[in-house]
Design a protein that fits this description.
alpha+beta; 3-stranded mixed beta sheet
Length: 89
């Protein structure tokens, strides 16, 4: 991973020539990161070098989409935290 924002739980991965032949590894790593609740955005290094405006728009678009979605609750629908869960916060 090239960049990580813990607040957004966002991983940004920039693939370049050094990544050639590593597709399977990258996909397994991405699946692992996503299984931990992270989002992975992938960009080609040529995009980053020659079209940074569109890369930034893609990241900004992801952030805007995320803001429109309600936050994910750790509780099932209708389930409330127990007293011990609220006391520990």
């Amino acid at each position: 991973m090239d960049f990580y924002c813990s607040k957004l739980r966002l991983v940004i991965d920039i693939d370049g020539e050094s990544y050639s032949g590593k597709f399977d590894y990258d996909m397994r790593r991405q699946q692992f990161l996503e299984s931990m609740g992270l989002t992975v955005l992938r960009f080609n290094d040529t995009e980053v070098k020659k079209d940074m405006d569109n890369v930034m728009m893609a990241i900004g678009g992801w952030m805007a989409d995320r803001e429109e979605q309600p936050p994910v609750s750790p509780f099932s629908k209708g389930e409330l935290p127990t007293r011990s869960e609220t006391d520990s916060k």
